[in-house]
Amino acid sequence: IECDVTFTKDKELVCRHAQNDLHTTTNILLTPLAAKCFKPFTPYNPATKSPATAECRTTDITLAEFKTLVGKMDGANENALTVEEYVAGTPLFRTDLYTPPAKGGTLMTHKESIDLFKQLGVKMTPEAKEAVVEWPYDGFTRADFVQKIVDEYNALKVNASDVFIQSFILGDLAYLTTSYPDGFGATAVYLDSSDTIKDVPSKATLASWKASGINIWAPPIWVLLQAKDGQIAPSQAAIDAKAVGLDLIAWSLERSGFMTNPDHGGWYYQTLNSIITSESDILVALHVLAQDVGLRGIFTDWPGTVTYYANCFGLARAQC
């Protein structure tokens, strides 16, 4: 299970999808802490058609203040004229069932997430999130940030083999593979940020990553799949990665809108959009990833689909 890790004003590690998402994932705009937000709420302007905006960062508040907030489903209403309308902007393909606005979800520190995951008996895959503040932050460097993540696992006596630290930043991987080549570096995950086909790394690049000590490459789903003869098939990048000895993890299932819409999967399935016609095609894509690509794991915003598939095919005890 994942905790996306960032930090507060007092440099404490917390779980948040981005350092600057509190305005769309918590109730901060409905509290006095809204006054501390990096950018205050600005309503939709009907005359100029300018969307409603706000930006609240974890570094705007201390850990103690962070813990007074409650979580909500990520979303915002860009046509909002009031704060209340803005925070009620849950997309139609998501639900407030598990985080009702009247109650909200519990925000967690990184340490609290570790305690919870230990109780659940699961492996852990924290992401060292990119920062929107400049480094160093009040003397706190990027390396300090990554090291603090490691320190909290060590302090809570978690075996490095049960932790898969992820990052989009190659420097983070270099730090981990150099400092902990047989521990946290061996299980570190390089998140690929390829945006279009032209960004997909070559076999030579993949081989250089493997030679540097990186063992796990995690690109978007579309990088590992292609449409071939009207069917979903492994991509050349997937074949190349396996050939050079990289393990593979993909992201992210269940993050797109409805597959029956004209743009179906959009960005996440851009190499397959020509052949995706229904929600069931996502199970086909998952099957190809698991059986033909040989995926080690997949990130998903809702675990039901992957769990159902894994149970059907006896993969419930997969590595991660």
UniProtKB/TrEMBL annotation:
Belongs to the glycerophosphoryl diester phosphodiesterase family. This is glycerophosphodiester phosphodiesterase. Its EC number is 3.1.4.46. It catalyses: a sn-glycero-3-phosphodiester + H2O = an alcohol + sn-glycerol 3-phosphate + H(+). Keywords: Glycerol metabolism, Hydrolase, Signal. One of its GO terms (molecular function) is glycerophosphodiester phosphodiesterase activity. Residues 1-304 form the GP-PDE domain. It comes from the Eukaryota. The keyword Signal applies. SUPFAM superfamilies: PLC-like phosphodiesterases (SSF51695). One of its GO terms (biological process) is lipid metabolic process.
